[in-house]
Specification:
Radius of gyration: 19 Å
Strand order of the largest sheet: 2-3-4-5-6-7-8-9-10-11-12-13
CATH superfamily: Phospholipase A1
Structural class: mainly beta
Strand content: over 45%
CATH class: Mainly Beta
Distance between the termini: 28 Å
Number of domains: 1
Helix content: under 10%
CATH architecture: Beta Barrel
CATH topology: Outer membrane phospholipase (ompla), Chain C
Number of strands: 13
Number of helices: 3
Largest sheet: 12 strands, antiparallel, barrel
Length: 302
Amino acid sequence: MGRQSFIITILLLTQIFTGQYVFSQGNDDQNWYFKNSKSLSELWELDDEHQRGTFILTSYKPIYITAVKFSTNPNEFPVAENSTKVLNEPNKLNAVESKFQISLKTKIFHGMFDGKMDLWMGYSQRAYWQIYNTERSRPFRELNYQPEIIANFPIQFKILGFDAKMIGAAVIHESNGQSDPISRSWNRIAFHAGFEKGNWQVMLKPWIRIGSKIDDNENISDYIGRGEADITYDWGRQRFRAIARHSLNLGDKSRGSLQINWSFPIYKNFNGHFQLFDGYGETLIDYNHRQTTFGIGVSLIN
């Protein structure tokens, strides 16, 4: 199943990069999708100028391939705090692997509640591939799937020098599609607010975890966090992005993560991509495992 998902994803990435995938029917500006910097109004169709209709695929989170990613502390023996099942022996992992992410969204309803709300569907997938691990026949270490339903409300007012552009909420499911003892999943209701100022974009997203009767990782929020701040700055064709998450606890339970991304132009729409991560939860299976990783690759859509 993992290899099939990888093949489908690579084919889709190839179509995106070569321009063969039709994201917007009837769109005369074929470069709109590939512009390095887009406003929140463009990304989320917040005004009449940027409306593109329903059921048209557009970018959501960045799409990139990290060719080489190094971890200071590979999680060879993942354990969930409430599970009685554990691996028979540690996994033999390489500290160096590959990673890719694909993320798309589409608007399914426009102008609901007297024209004040749009409803979107989003899907993101991250894959962690032990491509250099010849001893274990190059397996996929982890696949994370994240579908979500997003309600978005355009707004317009100023706060602390920023333009408030949107607020909303989303129902998010995330899982790794595995069985015990390495099954990981959680559901949450997330609230968001988006702000802009010049070359800056800020997205604030707190969330509430939805519990489950069958739950091997009920304390996931104490590690991955209860909210995030996503800050982006564009400098010419270079883009700097920081994503900070925190548990909103103090003392020994003050945990979270920081991810820093830098994309830079190589040729036309082809960008280099550097990513640094420190903390908990780079993947679902690593939700309670701390590590520092850094990788270099290419970014197809920022």
